């Protein structure tokens, strides 16, 4: 309790943390908007549960394939530059997709490629964001800083982004993706303005390689019973939840005949249950 009290007193919004918090929360809002709109677009192209599951799986697969690589790369590069570069790339990708939708050009294969590309870039961004936080706040403030960051992201993604997406889709199928692209670009500008102290790169032993660093991380994870159990539990839980979410759009909008707005509200309630639990 003493540490948390001290952390709450020492966290300052100036000096970079406020910009990182704003960028992360803004990006999470955009992600939530897109995550609701994407299955709605896919359901408008097909009613096949298998094809919808493929699009959904494309958004999860990069964490299994590139998650460890993203963590190792985040320790080798200028994290600030990596984060804003990734956000610019994601903003341009989503903007291009929004333009295609506005002209009536949408294909399931494009949706799957977009989901895969965005999540692949996210593996580097999220790992860099985790590593950059200790360079922006004192060590004693990390618990409070992390709590505020996670709370802001949960509120923006769960209680604001999902319901907003349902309303945006009714105004135009391309609008949610345009909003998502804008959040990425604004977040990139905020991250690019972070102080130079945030660019420190972790020191490594001479001759260290990406492969060896990943191997060290895997061995350390496997030897820690708590971490190993938590990762396996998350893996199994995500497999089940991912399968449910892939079909939720069909269940709500096609089989139950509800509107896109209701779909967004259901996802918001779904996420709220996870936050409360």
Automatic annotation (TrEMBL):
<keyword id="KW-0813">Transport</keyword>
<dbReference type="InterPro" id="IPR036259">
    <property type="entry name" value="MFS_trans_sf"/>
</dbReference>
<keyword id="KW-1003">Cell membrane</keyword>
<protein>
    <submittedName>
        <fullName>MFS transporter</fullName>
    </submittedName>
</protein>
<dbReference type="GO" id="GO:0005886">
    <property type="term" value="C:plasma membrane"/>
</dbReference>
<dbReference type="InterPro" id="IPR010290">
    <property type="entry name" value="TM_effector"/>
</dbReference>
<feature type="transmembrane region" description="Helical">
    <location>
        <begin position="229"/>
        <end position="252"/>
    </location>
</feature>
<feature type="transmembrane region" description="Helical">
    <location>
        <begin position="258"/>
        <end position="276"/>
    </location>
</feature>
<keyword id="KW-0812">Transmembrane</keyword>
<feature type="transmembrane region" description="Helical">
    <location>
        <begin position="50"/>
        <end position="71"/>
    </location>
</feature>
<keyword id="KW-0472">Membrane</keyword>
<keyword id="KW-1133">Transmembrane helix</keyword>
<feature type="transmembrane region" description="Helical">
    <location>
        <begin position="154"/>
        <end position="175"/>
    </location>
</feature>
<dbReference type="Pfam" id="PF05977">
    <property type="entry name" value="MFS_3"/>
</dbReference>
<feature type="transmembrane region" description="Helical">
    <location>
        <begin position="92"/>
        <end position="118"/>
    </location>
</feature>
